[in-house]
Design goal:
The protein is built from 2 helices and 6 strands. With 91 residues, it is α+β, with helices and mostly antiparallel strands. A two-stranded antiparallel ribbon has the order 1-2. Strands 3-4 form a two-stranded antiparallel sheet. The chain is extended, with a radius of gyration of 21 Å.
């Protein structure tokens, strides 16, 4: 039987302009997860077909005309930039 270390890590949160603090367990960050993606898509459907400003505010694009980003099925052979954009690593 193993120990789940995520439950044992405690972080101190400052409250009320730093005058008091409390210790809480670490919460998972899921801002790039599937649930967040579904919630964002639902919000965009609710908003309808919006006009989005682009190109320094000089061009209007409808939300329905924007391409949705997709990831390739296999990331092998692709490069990732590192540092300040000067280096790269091949996957």
């Amino acid at each position: 039987m193993g120990i789940n270390f995520i439950d044992t890590i405690v972080v101190r949160h400052n409250l009320e302009r730093g005058t008091s603090s409390e210790d809480k367990p670490v919460l998972p960050a899921e801002f790039m997860g599937k649930e967040t993606t579904k919630a964002n898509e639902a919000r965009l459907k609710l908003a309808g077909d919006l006009m989005i400003m682009s190109a320094k505010g000089t061009k209007k694009i409808k939300l329905s005309e924007l391409e949705k980003p997709t990831l390739p099925a296999n990331l092998k052979g692709h490069y990732i930039t590192t540092g300040k954009g000067t280096g790269r690593v091949k996957l």
